[in-house]
Design a protein that fits this description.
The chain contains 14 helices and 12 strands. Helix content is 42%, strand content 15%. It has helices spanning 6-34, 46-56, 72-79, 90-102, 116-123, 196-206, 209-220, 228-236, 245-255, 264-272, 326-337, 339-342, 355-365, 380-397; strands spanning 58-63, 82-87, 110-113, 129-130, 150-162, 187-189, 259-260, 281-285, 299-301, 310-320, 351-352, 375-377. It has 2 domains: 26-37 and 44-154 and 313-372, Periplasmic binding protein-like II (D-Maltodextrin-Binding Protein, domain 2, 3-Layer(aba) Sandwich), CATH 3.40.190; 155-312 and 380-397, D-Maltodextrin-Binding Protein, domain 2, CATH 3.40.190.10. The chain is an alpha/beta fold and 398 residues long.
Amino acid sequence: MRKLPKSKLMTTAAVFAIGLSGAAFADETWQKLAGVGAYASDVQDWTAIEAAAREEGQVVIYSVSSRIAKLVDGFKEAYGIEIIGHDMPSDLQIEKLRREHNAGVHAVDVLFNAEAPLLLNEALPNGLVWNFIPSGLESDLDSNEMEPFLIQRHSSRVVYYNTALNPDGAPIDTLWDLTTEEWTGRTLLPSPLEDGLSANFMQTILQNSDEMAAAYEREFGEPIAYSEEVLEAVAESAVISEPNASMEWLFRFLGNEPVFMSSTTKIFKNVGDVQQENPPLGITTFSKMRKNKEGVYAAAPIYGLDPVFGVSYPTALVMADMAPHPNAAKLLIKYMMEEEGFDPWNEPGDFAARSSIEAMQMNDFDLPSFDDLKLWPIDPEEIYFSKYGFLALYLELG
């Protein structure tokens, strides 16, 4: 690295220190104005917050869901405030916020984000976002749905099949079927190398190896035997001490030529198209059931899949640090937690965190409660700290 002259180095360091001091002062001033962090109050004056939000006039949100656009008219009619929504994958939201923050650009107010591992281990501890809990929700949410961040809904990646062309039920009954010859080249999913939620899905399977081993034995009637490639990958790994059933499943699955597609909607449509003859299976978002259309698309999750039919993850609402419209941000977060503001996500497969709204969903959609579904929840800590090890294993086995 090229060294600066000592005098210039000292000048640069001094300017940098002044810049940091000014940034810290500005950030503390903003925290006080926004009422977050050490300045958060137990009493929220919503009359004052709404009045200040109307003065701000707009609110900018990075949203993991394109359905944010459905809130624009209702929010504008209710409060006279314009929602400027940017449909953006969760991991890219955090990367964009980080880059903007480092450059002194503060352009976003709210993140609607499903990357719990990054929120928990980077965005929150590094002060990129703040948790804000609108008053009045305490009795309707579990404590882990309010801390460390506010959860609006629970989503899932699950395995879908074509119901029109399989009138007698799902064509598979275990995740291990995805590794068999019959399904070579016939499983669709987003690439784990490009889609964070798809990687989280795979990592969660890897973290449940005992259940995968038991499912293998139930399906094939004998204990699992490991492939030479899996044994070699373990032997060469600096962090993996022994093989397990989930690694073997991953190796066989990747060797069975899955088809990677970037759009979860396109995956659903390719699975559910009723005009085809030999439909694939697809790993996509649970809530894609809303895309079913008589005579066009017909697909459903395989609820009875052994050992599990999907992986669940929370979708959070957080306020961006230095948000230019902090009161409008609070108002939008509150609105999206209410029945009217939740409406775009009031679909089968999107489970409201608020128990009162979930109870209505169970009645309207004739679905079991979220807690009763056969889903494995992601472990944000484990996923975050094992991500690079997973990617190395994935590339080695693929």
